[in-house]
Design a protein that fits this description.
Layout: E1 7-11, E2 14-18, E3 20-24, E4 29-34, E5 37-40, E6 45-46, E7 60-62, E8 68-72, E9 81-85, E10 91-96, E11 101-105, E12 112-117, E13 120-126, E14 133-138, E15 142-144, E16 150-153, E17 161-162, E18 166-173, E19 179-185, H1 193-197, E20 202-203, E21 209-215, E22 219-224, E23 234-238, E24 244-247, E25 258-259, E26 265-269, E27 273-277, E28 283-287, H2 290-294, E29 298-304, E30 310-318, E31 324-333, E32 339-344
Antiparallel strand pairs: 1-2, 3-4, 4-5, 5-6, 7-8, 8-9, 9-10, 11-12, 12-13, 13-14, 15-16, 16-18, 17-20, 18-19, 21-22, 22-23, 23-24, 25-26, 26-27, 27-28, 29-30, 30-31, 31-32
Length: 349
């Protein structure tokens, strides 16, 4: 169990007790950030770094009730393993994932797992005991909603077709079994006429939409790849019928935003923290502190406070292995971008 302690520091002329409450979108709960790291309200100790940096422990995400999903990545001797556990981290069910693991994510009915064989993808959704498959989707990338009640996919049989602005989207209602044939306008609101003239002649339409994020009001944020002629993707907000509503303003491409606690804001951290109004797509704030570069640091993660008044950006230094060290928490007022304080964090080697 993570040991609680408070660290009093005087830095930048500020004397403060370091304990900040932040929102964890993947966990769907708040946590306390101290110099020792993150501790959630239910007593879990989590890394302050994103999953792809974390060496100390795998991340866990909520499933249903008080159950959580843990993904233990493969080693030289063990395959990827899914673990359903309780709030005290007691394993209740385990499942070894076959080779070709791509990703796993939670739904209210249990975890869904995507694997590949060659270029073909298969997604299987398991119940909470990891003994029964309640849905299988072969050959096509899919988005299964967090509630486990609706699935979106792009039904292109051969995976490639001449470029078209109209991309077919199928919506399957898992409660009723009804399938709705929808159409996504992949170049809606594309402002670059030169880009339109130089679009690729063919592309894999199955991958037109991916990395969906559920928003309030039956809306979704989707990473939309219009063609292969442009790197990354455009972050579009769609309604339940896959109709284009608006695009997030500013540079976003490969950064998939997270939601604030109240769903009013979207935010993503790259070399800059970007914050958007989830209702309009307008970029409200961009924070990139020139002091990072002066001190040889770079941003690796960001958190918002539950009231959306502050952000905490975790920075580190490069140790030539790609793993950040000498971690620090930099606090900023979100409405002004003003730096409030800099605080040390425990390294996670």
């Amino acid at each position: 169990m993570l040991r609680h302690f408070l660290l009093t520091v005087g830095l930048l002329g500020l004397g403060t007790t370091f304990a900040v409450t932040v929102w964890l979108p993947e966990q769907q709960q708040t946590a306390t950030l101290t110099a020792a790291g993150l501790q959630t309200a239910d007593g879990r100790a989590l890394s302050v770094l994103p999953t792809y940096y974390s060496r100390s422990r795998p991340e866990t995400v909520p499933l249903s009730g008080n159950l959580f999903l843990r993904v233990n990545l493969a080693t030289t001797t063990k395959p990827v393993q899914l673990v359903v556990e309780d709030a005290q981290e007691k394993p209740l069910a385990t499942l070894n994932v076959p080779s070709g693991f791509v990703r796993a994510w939670p739904t209210g009915y249990g975890p869904c797992v995507t694997t590949t064989v060659g270029v073909a993808q298969t997604t299987r959704c398991w119940n909470l005991t990891l003994k029964t498959i309640w849905a299988t989707f072969g050959g096509l990338p899919v988005y299964v909603s967090r509630l486990g009640d609706v699935v979106y996919t792009t039904p292109v049989p051969d995976g490639s077709q001449p470029y078209s602005s109209s991309v077919p989207i199928a919506r399957l209602d898992l409660r009723t079994g009804k399938v709705a044939a929808l159409t996504l306008d992949a170049i809606a609101a594309e402002p670059d006429p030169e880009y339109r003239r130089n679009v690729a002649e063919g592309y894999d339409a199955r991958n037109t939409t991916h990395d969906w994020v559920a928003l309030p009001g039956n809306r979704f944020l989707a990473c939309v790849t219009t063609t292969l002629a442009k790197w990354g993707c455009r972050l579009d907000v769609l309604n339940r019928d896959a109709q284009f509503l608006y695009t997030l303003q500013g540079v976003a491409n490969d950064l998939i935003p997270a939601r604030s606690r109240d769903g009013r804001l979207l935010y993503a951290i790259g070399n800059t923290l970007q914050v958007w109004d989830a209702a309009t797509g307008q970029r409200l704030r961009a924070i990139h502190d020139p002091l990072w570069a002066k001190k040889g640091r770079y941003a690796v993660n960001a958190f918002l406070t539950p009231d959306n008044r502050e952000t905490v950006i975790v920075t580190g230094k490069d140790d030539q292995t790609g793993y950040p060290h000498e971690l620090q928490a930099w606090r900023y007022a979100l409405n002004t971008g003003k730096r409030l304080e800099i605080l040390p964090l425990q390294d996670e080697h």
